[in-house]
Design brief:
The protein is of the alpha/beta class. The radius of gyration is 25 Å and the shape is globular. The strands form four sheets. An eight-stranded antiparallel sheet has the order 3-2-4-1-10-9-11-13, with helices on one face. A five-stranded antiparallel sheet has the order 5-6-7-8-12, with helices on one face. The protein has three domains: 242 residues, Glutamine Phosphoribosylpyrophosphate, subunit 1, domain 1; 197 residues, Rossmann fold, CATH 3.40.50; 140 residues, Glucose-6-phosphate isomerase like protein, domain 1 (Rossmann fold, 3-Layer(aba) Sandwich). Bound molecules: fructose -6-phosphate (F6R).
């Protein structure tokens, strides 16, 4: 999704803002640009070379006059208008004195575009964003101050978005405003910044602030009609700039995969006290309210949705509360039956996925209590929910999630145990024991990760295949979905996931000797059933890979390859069986010569519908 970085202060360099954009590259983009206000007014450079846009932009920074004290930058992920040079941001008005960058979509842009065109403005791009510059130009011409002009135009725009603008007559201030879409404010070394997320500016900023909604904020010099940084709420972001540097690995995907045992352990440890009890300070909902919960709904997208599917089993197992799980983009358009006995849990790594945010907002409006499970302190989801469980996975740069998935499952597991204890379904001693056993799973995850090379060797004969099926039952079905999603995202291959018992109701028709079926068969109460499903698959000639617990020779004899993981309690099995599938997605993509960190068509942090 689009990325925004802006900096203002005595020694701000276009190269620094560029580095911020570089750190937003992971979000996905197709064109990029920078603007500054120098002594001669607004200067803009833009480029549209697809994934190489930032390399191109870097080579052109010298075209900008050095010594400016205000620079704004943008990476664009095309929505309105193709990824061309004309459509790349920053955009300017007819006078060239207003310059802005924009993330999000202006839903009513057609009528606004028609309006500015009818007023004689010449539009140079097909974007919704440029229209905003012309509307601001009109307000300035009518005598408004920049902050008032921005606020007035913003109130006419419908949709979710973040806007950062600068004005030639105000070379000391940058103005920002947002609705739902991410934007934060930061300061460091006498300079002030706007950025779409914290990793972009970790090396230049030391203090971070929440950006309110619907309010024009000015950074740098104070400006009439705009609030300054002193009015903002600080954010306790403790990530370091080295957390977002690629060290010792070929890709962020592989680096973050290698970190997932630690991320999981940090998450669960932060939610368990020394005596094995729950750390409830994190959970700000009144225990009495939780005790009378009669329904839990979990919503999320992609990998986070899959963590929610695992969460359903955990909550029903420990807390005996009925749970439904839905894809956030579907849930938000349902008419769910909710009241204050219902808890809606939004699971989102970024805390900024628009679908999840709007689903949780809708649930709150319908009277439900809300809980966020997110990795980003101060994210939109964390702010709008009644309470938050933070995963402590550190920044996730890879578009394809790995370490945050396990951390989300860990947080949901601890919530399930806590709820079970509150509701009296498990004794405190059992709850303590369950928490401690969960913490120990980190060691099993680590062992599975250490087997990466071994998994890759076993998978080598399969990497040329272009049709994969993933099957599992109960807790392993979400793992199957996650394995298929990872493979699709990174390798662009057809990968389907089915509950193993569902194959015979239709999908088995697709199986032949060209198909590879990955069967998840840990030692649990459904193992025999899955073994029978594997026999059905073999009878149709398909090639079989099994993911099984150590020592399960019986499962291995049914397969061409067996990916063994250390045995853990069946209830924790998704935390280890997913590891070989994450490795598999990376290995298949790499064998096809694909860049693991730049999956085609994908963006990280999806802030549009
Ligand atoms: C898959 C992946 C996506 C995200 C999804 C939700 O590897 O990363 O499917 O899980 O876009 O993102 P968050 O969790 O930030 O809401």
């Amino acid at each position: 999704m689009c990325g925004i970085v802006g900096g203002v202060g005595p020694s701000i360099l276009a190269a620094e803002v560029f580095e911020g954009l570089k750190r937003l590259e992971y979000r996905g983009y197709d064109s990029a640009g920078l603007a500054l206000i120098g002594t001669g007014g607004v200067e803009v450079i833009r480029t549209a070379c697809g994934r190489h846009s930032l390399d191109d932009l870097k080579g052109r920074i010298d075209e900008l006059t050095p010594g400016a004290s205000l620079v704004i930058g943008h990476t664009r992920w095309a929505t309105h208008g193709a990824p061309t040079l004309e459509n790349a941001h920053p955009h300017t008005d007819c006078t060239g004195r207003v310059v802005l960058v924009h993330n999000g979509i202006v839903d009513n842009f057609r009528e606004l575009r028609a309006e500015v065109v009818s007023h004689g403005h010449e539009l140079k791009s097909a974007t919704d964003s440029e229209v905003i510059a012309h509307l601001i130009e009109e307000e300035l011409a009518a005598g408004m101050e920049p902050a008032a002009a921005l606020g007035s135009v913003f109130s006419r725009l419908s949709g979710h978005m973040a806007l950062v603008a600068a004005f030639a007559q105000f070379p000391g201030s940058i103005f920002g405003i947002r609705r739902t879409s991410p934007l934060l404010v930061a300061e460091g070394d006498g300079r002030s910044f706007f950025a779409s997320d914290a990793p972009a500016i970790l090396d230049v900023a030391t203090s971070f602030y929440e950006m309110p909604e619907e309010r024009v904020i000015a950074i740098g010099k104070l400006a009439n009609g705009a609030a300054g940084v002193s009015t903002l709420t600080p954010l306790a972001i403790d990530w370091a700039s080295q957390d977002v540097e690629l060290v010792g690995h070929q890709s962020f995907y592989e680096m973050e995969l290698s970190q997932e045992a630690g991320a999981f352990l940090d998450t669960v440890s932060s939610l368990i006290d020394e005596g094995g009890g729950a750390v409830v300070d994190e959970l700000k909902v009144d225990p009495y309210e939780l005790k009378r919960l009669r329904k839990v709904t979990v919503v999320g997208c992609g990998t986070s949705y899959h963590a929610g599917l695992v969460g359903r089993f955990l909550i029903e197992h420990f807390a005996k509360v009925p749970v439904e799980v839905d894809v956030a983009s579907e849930y938000r358009y349902r008419d769910p039956i909710l009241d204050d006995d219902a808890l809606v849990v939004g699971v989102s790594q970024s805390g900024e996925s628009l679908d999840t945010i709007t689903a949780v907002k809708g649930a709150a409006a319908a009277g439900a209590r809300t809980l966020a499970v997110t990795n980003v302190i101060g994210s939109q989801l964390s702010r709008l929910s009644d309470t938050v469980l933070y995963t402590r996975a550190g920044p996730e740069v890879s578009v394809a999630s790995t370490k945050t998935h396990l951390s989300q499952i860990g947080a949901l597991a601890l919530f399930a145990i806590y709820l079970g204890e509150l509701k009296g379904h498990i004794y405190p001693e059992e709850a303590r024991e369950a928490r401690n056993s969960l913490r120990k799973v980190a060691a099993a995850i680590e062992v599975a990760l250490e087997r990466k090379r071994g998994y890759e060797e076993k998978l080598a004969p399969f990497v040329g295949t272009d049709r994969f099926f993933f099957i599992g039952r109960n807790l392993q079905y979400p793992v199957a979905l996650e394995g298929a999603l990872k493979l699709k995202e990174l390798s662009y291959l057809a990968a389907e996931a089915y509950p193993a018992g569902e194959l015979k109701h239709g999908p088995i028709a697709m199986l032949d000797s060209e198909a590879v079926v990955v069967a998840l068969v840990p030692r649990d109460r459904l193992r025999e059933k899955v073994l029978a499903n594997i026999e059905e698959v073999r009878a149709r000639g398909a090639r079989v890979i099994v993911v099984a617990f150590d020592g399960d020779d019986e499962a291995a004899t049914l397969a061409e390859a067996a990916l063994f993981v250390p045995e853990v309690r069946p209830i924790w099995s998704p935390l280890v069986t997913v590891v070989p599938l994450q490795v598999m997605a990376g290995a298949v993509a790499r064998s096809r010569g694909l860049n693991l960190d730049r999956p085609r068509n994908l963006a990280k942090t999806v802030t549009v519908e």
